[in-house]
Write a structure and sequence with these properties.
The structure holds 2 protein chains of 2 kinds.
Chain A (H helix, E strand, L loop, with lengths): L1 H29 L2 H5 L1 H24 L6 H6 L6 H7 L4 H22 L5 H25 L24 H30 L4 H32 L10 H26 L3 H24 L12 H26 L13 H31 L5 E3 L1 H21 L11 H25 L6 H25 L4 H7 L2 H26 L1 E7 L4 E4 L2 E12 L3 E12 L2 E13 L4 E5 L1 E4 L3 E10 L5 E9 L2 H18 L9 H12 L1
Antiparallel strand pairs in A: 2-10, 3-4, 4-5, 5-6, 6-7, 8-9, 9-10
Helix pairs in contact in A: 1-3, 1-7, 3-5, 3-6, 6-7, 6-8, 7-8, 8-9, 8-11, 9-10, 9-19, 10-11, 10-13, 11-12, 13-14, 14-16, 15-16, 16-17, 16-18, 18-19
Chain B lengths: L2 H30 L1 E5 L1 H6 L13 E8 L5 E2 L5 E7 L4 E7 L11 E10 L2 E8 L9 H6 L24
Parallel strand pairs in B: 1-2, 5-7
Antiparallel strand pairs in B: 2-4, 2-6, 3-4, 4-5, 6-7
The chains are: A alpha+beta, B alpha+beta.
Chain lengths: 657, 166
C-alpha cells in the first residue's frame, strides 16, 4: 500500500512539475499576475509530494518489502537499519528519486527566499526549474521507476547492498553531491530567466551569488566525502583515482568555482556579464554530462550504475535539449549586452579573468582525458586508457601559476593597481612563505628540491598571503579590534576558502612525495618496519558479522620501542553478494596516517599485508572542509539577506548601467 | 572595419590561438599517456587490420581470463605469475605485489604493465572488478559466444557465432 502511495506521489510530482513548467512561464508572457503567483504553491506542493515518495521508498526498504524489485536487488533483511535507509539511494533508481527530491527542495527554497525578486523574474525562475524537474521526474517515472513490483513472484531474501556502499561516508556522500549538482540548476534557471528578460546587472549577480555559493558548498563537501570514502573503503589508501565518475563530479566543480569568482566581478563591477551567464549555463550542463556518464554506461568505472542504453539515450537527448536550447537563447540575446566598465591590465578584474582561464583549462583537461578513450573507441581506433600520469602532469603544470596568482589576487584593487605599493608587503609574504616552508620541511624531513618543497612553498605563499591580506583590511578600519566586526562575512569566507586551498595543496604534495608503501609477507609474530614504525602482526582470526564473514588481523605499532597504537584490519566476505571487501585499519593524526590493509592468505599460513605511512593525508580533506566552511561564511553575509534589496538594488543597477 | 570591431576580432583571434595551443599541448601529453588495450590473441597476432604487434618495452593493458592452474607463487615473497587467455594463445604475466580481492583462477582481469618479451608482460597493476561476474568488456567482445557465461545469465543463450557463416 505504502509503495503504491509513493508511486502515486511521484505521479503527482510529475503533474505538479509540468504545471510549474507551464503556468508561471505562460503568466510571464501574458503578464498575468494570477498565473505568476501560482508558482510558489506549485513549488511547495512539488516538494511535499517528492518527500512523500522518498519516504515511501525508505519505508519499503526498512520493512524488507522484497516484492519491490529495487529493494530486492539492493537490500536484505540482515542489513543494519541505517544501511537499509541509505540503500534507498544506493541504486540507480533510488538515487534518481533522491535527485528529484533535491531538485524539488531547491525549487521550494527558491520559492521561499525570493520575495525580494520582481514577480516576473520569480515566476520565470521557478518555471524553468519546473521544466528541468519535469524532465527528471519523467525519467524517474518512466525509465527507472524505483517502485516497480515483481508480483506475483518475488524473492524471500534480497540481494543485499553492495558492500562498498556499506560505509558511513556513503550515507552522507550522495545527498551532498546531489545537492551540489542540482544546486547549479538554480544558477542555470537564474541565467535563463535573465536571458529571457535581457536584464543583467549587479543586482542580478547579487541574487545569483548565494545560490551558486550554496551549490558549490555542497558539491565541495560531496566530492570531499567521496574521496574520504574511497580512501577508507576501497582498501588501498588512494584518495583520488581520476576515475571517470570522479571526473564527472570534478568538472562542474571547476566551472562552479570559476562561476563564483566571475559572479564577484559582475556584482562589484557590472562587467564580465556574458561570461558569467555562460559559466552558469556550463556548470549545470556539466552536471548533466556527469549524470549521463554515470548512468548511461558509456564509460567503465568502479562506480557506474548498471548499464541500459535506453536510459543513456534519454539523458543524452535531455542534455542536448538543455545545452542547445540555452545556447540558442544565449546567442540571440547576449550580443545586445555590453559591459561598460573599464579596467587596466593590472587589476583585480584581470586576475579573476586569469583565475577563470586556469579553472576552465583544468576542466578542459579533465574533459579530454575522460572522454578521449570513448571517442577513440567509437572511431574504431581500438580500446585505450588514459593513465593517471596525464592528469597528474597537467595539474602539476596548472597549479603552479594558479597558486601564484591566487596569492596575489586579493591584494589587487579593482580597476587599476600600481605595482610599487604591493612590492613591500608581498615580498615580506614571500620571505615568510620561504622561511616557513623550509622550516617545516627541515624539521620533519630533509629539504630536497621536490614536489613536497614546491607544494609547501605554494601552500605557504597562498596561506600567508591570505592571512596578511585580511589583517591589512582590518587595519584599514582603524584598528584590528574595530575591523573584526566591520569587515563583511564574505571577505572572511574568501580568506578561509583560500587557506583551505593552501592546506589542500600542501596535503597533496606531501602525501604524493613522502608516502611509504610496502607489501609484506607476514606470519603471526613477524615485525615489519615502515618509515620508522614497527608493525607487529599479533593475531589473525575468523570473523563472524551480521551479513559477512572473513578474517581479521591484529597489529601492534611501535616507534623506537614506544607503543603507538593497536590496529585492527579486516578482510570481509559478504555472503549474499559473495564479494570480498578489504576493511583497512587506519590510525589518523594530522601529520600522518598509518594505513594497513589485510590482503590475501599465502601458502604456509602467512598473510600478505600492505602497510602505508601517509604523511599529511588528512590535510587534503581538511582543505576541502575549510573551502566549504569559507563558502558557508560567505553565505552568511548580510547583504544577501537585506530586506530592502529591491529598492537600493534598483538604484545600484541604474548607476551601473 | 571600425576600431572597436577590429579590437574584438583581434581578441577573439588571440583566444582561439591560445586555445588551439593549449589543446594541442594537451593532446600531445595525452599521446604519451595512452595505454592501448590488448587481449592475449591480439597481443600475439597483432591489433586491427594491419596486425600491428606491440613492441618490447611498450606500456600496455591486457585483459583476459586467468587460466585455471596457472597461478604460481614464490614461497618467500609476493612474486606471482599466471597465464591469461581469451580465444587462442596464452600470455604470461608476472607481478610482484598484492593481487586484488577478487583475483581468482578462471576470472576475468585486467593487467597494466610493460611487455618484456613477445608473450610475457611484467605487470605493475592488476585489476579485478568488485563483482564476481565481471569480465573486461573488450574480453567479453572477443570471447562472445565462446565459453564464459556469467552466473546470472546462465539461462540466456549467448551462443551466437562470431562470424556469420551459414
Amino acid at each position: 500500500m505504502i509503495v503504491e502511495a509513493g508511486q502515486l506521489a511521484l505521479t503527482f510530482v510529475f503533474a505538479l512539475s509540468l504545471l510549474l513548467a507551464v503556468v508561471p512561464l505562460l503568466g510571464s508572457f501574458t503578464a498575468n499576475q494570477r498565473l505568476l503567483l501560482l508558482a510558489k504553491p506549485l513549488a511547495f506542493g512539488q516538494f511535499a509530494f517528492a518527500l512523500v515518495a522518498m519516504a515511501a521508498l525508505v519505508y519499503a526498504f526498512c520493512n524488507n518489502d522484497f516484492t519491490v524489485i529495487n529493494v530486492a536487488q539492493n537490500s536484505s533483511s540482515t542489513l543494519p537499519w541505517y544501511y537499509q535507509v541509505t540503500a534507498s539511494f544506493g541504486s540507480h533508481e533510488g538515487s534518481m528519486l533522491l535527485w528529484v527530491l533535491m531538485l524539488a527542495f531547491w525549487t521550494a527554497l527558491v520559492a521561499q527566499f525570493s520575495k525580494a525578486l520582481p514577480l516576473l523574474l520569480q515566476g520565470r525562475i521557478l518555471g524553468i526549474l519546473g521544466l528541468i524537474s519535469a524532465g527528471f521526474v519523467a525519467f524517474s517515472l518512466f525509465m527507472s521507476n524505483p517502485f516497480l513490483r515483481s508480483l506475483p513472484f518475488f524473492p524471500v531474501e534480497g540481494r543485499d547492498l553492495n558492500p562498498l556502499l556499506q560505509d558511513f561516508g556513503m550515507i552522507m556522500h550522495p545527498p551532498m553531491l546531489y545537492m551540489g549538482y542540482v544546486g547549479f540548476a538554480v544558477a542555470f534557471a537564474f541565467a535563463i530567466a535573465a536571458l529571457m528578460s535581457g536584464r543583467f546587472d549587479s543586482v542580478w549577480a547579487r541574487w545569483v551569488r548565494p545560490w551558486a555559493l550554496a551549490a558549490w558548498l555542497f558539491l565541495t563537501l560531496g566530492i570531499m566525502l567521496g574521496s574520504w570514502w574511497a580512501y577508507n573503503e576501497l582498501g588501498w589508501g588512494g584518495w583520488w583515482f581520476w576515475d571517470p565518475v570522479e571526473n564527472a563530479s570534478f568538472m562542474p566543480w571547476l566551472v562552479g568555482t570559476a562561476l563564483i569568482h566571475s559572479l564577484a566581478v559582475t556584482e562589484k563591477r557590472g562587467t564580465f556579464k556574458s561570461w558569467t551567464v555562460l559559466l552558469a549555463l556550463a556548470a549545470f550542463a556539466l552536471s548533466l554530462v556527469g549524470a549521463f556518464l554515470v548512468r548511461s554506461g558509456v564509460l567503465v568505472s568502479v562506480h557506474s550504475f548498471a548499464t541500459d542504453p535506453g536510459r543513456g539515450l534519454y539523458l543524452l537527448v535531455f542534455l542536448l535539449l538543455v545545452v542547445g536550447g540555452s545556447l540558442l537563447l544565449y546567442g540571440r540575446r547576449m550580443n545586445s549586452v555590453r559591459s561598460q566598465a573599464r579596467y587596466q591590465l593590472f587589476s583585480r578584474e584581470m586576475l579573476l579573468w586569469g583565475n577563470n582561464i586556469f579553472l576552465l583549462t583544468a576542466c578542459l583537461i579533465v574533459f579530454l582525458g575522460t572522454l578521449f578513450p570513448l571517442f577513440h573507441k567509437e572511431l574504431g581506433l581500438g580500446s585505450i586508457s588514459i593513465g593517471e600520469p596525464f592528469f597528474n602532469q597537467m595539474f602539476y603544470y596548472l597549479s603552479i601559476p594558479f597558486a601564484l596568482l591566487l596569492g596575489l589576487g586579493p591584494w589587487v584593487r579593482w580597476k587599476q593597481q600600481q605595482v610599487m605599493p604591493l612590492m613591500r608587503p608581498l615580498s615580506l609574504v614571500a620571505i615568510a612563505a620561504l622561511a616557513i616552508a623550509l622550516g617545516v620541511l627541515s624539521s620533519m624531513q630533509s629539504v630536497q628540491a621536490n614536489l613536497a618543497l614546491l607544494g609547501m612553498l605554494l601552500g605557504a605563499w597562498v596561506g600567508i598571503s591570505a592571512l596578511a591580506e585580511v589583517v591589512l583590511r582590518l587595519r584599514q578600519f582603524g584598528s584590528i579590534g574595530k575591523g573584526i566586526t566591520k569587515l563583511n562575512a564574505s571577505h572572511y569566507g574568501m580568506t578561509l576558502a583560500h587557506i583551505g586551498f593552501a592546506v589542500l595543496v600542501i596535503g597533496v604534495a606531501m602525501t604524493k612525495t613522502y608516502t611509504t608503501e610496502r607489501d609484506v609477507r607476514m606470519l603471526e609474530g613477524d615485525t615489519a618496519t615502515v618509515a620508522g614504525y614497527e608493525f607487529t602482526l599479533t593475531d589473525v582470526y575468523d570473523l563472524n558479522g551480521a551479513n559477512y564473514g572473513g578474517q581479521a588481523a591484529e597489529l601492534d605499532v611501535r616507534q623506537n620501542g614506544q607503543f603507538v597504537t593497536h590496529l585492527h584490519a579486516e578482510k570481509r566476505f559478504y555472503r549474499i553478494q559473495r564479494t570480498v571487501m578489504t576493511e583497512s585499519a587506519v590510525h589518523a593524526r594530522l601529520s600522518r596516517d598509518l594505513y594497513v590493509s589485510l590482503a590475501e592468505e599465502l601458502p604456509g599460513g602467512a598473510w600478505a599485508l600492505r602497510i602505508q605511512v601517509k604523511p599529511f593525508v588528512r590535510w587534503i580533506w581538511l582543505g576541502g572542509l575549510l573551502m566549504a566552511l569559507g563558502a558557508l561564511l560567505a553565505l552568511a553575509d548580510k547583504r544577501y539577506r537585506r530586506k530592502t534589496t529591491t529598492t537600493d538594488a534598483t538604484v545600484a543597477g541604474v548607476a551601473d548601467a | 572595419m571600425q576600431p572597436r570591431r577590429q579590437k574584438r576580432l583581434l581578441a577573439i583571434l588571440v583566444v582561439i590561438a591560445l586555445l588551439t595551443g593549449a589543446v594541442g599541448a594537451m593532446l600531445y601529453a595525452l599521446q604519451q599517456n595512452i595505454d592501448l588495450f590488448y587481449t592475449p590473441s591480439q597481443l600475439i597476432d597483432g591489433l586491427g587490420n594491419d596486425k600491428v604487434k606491440p613492441q618490447i618495452g611498450q606500456r600496455l593493458r591486457i585483459g583476459g581470463m586467468v587460466v585455471v592452474g596457472s597461478v604460481k607463487r614464490d614461497p618467500n615473497s609476493l612474486q606471482v605469475s599466471f597465464d591469461l587467455v581469451d580465444t587462442g594463445p596464452l600470455v604470461h604475466v608476472t607481478y610482484k605485489g598484492i593481487l586484488p580481492d577478487l583475483f581468482r583462477e578462471g576470472q576475468g582481469i585486467v593487467a597494466q604493465g610493460t611487455l618484456v618479451d613477445a608473450t610475457t608482460i611484467e605487470a605493475n597493476e592488476v585489476l579485478a572488478k568488485h563483482d564476481e561476474e565481471y569480465m573486461p568488456p573488450e574480453v567479453a567482445e572477443a570471447m562472445k559466444g565462446i565459453k564464459h557465461v556469467p552466473p546470472s545469465q546462465l539461462d540466456a543463450s549467448t551462443n551466437k557465432p562470431t562470424q556469420g557463416s551459414y
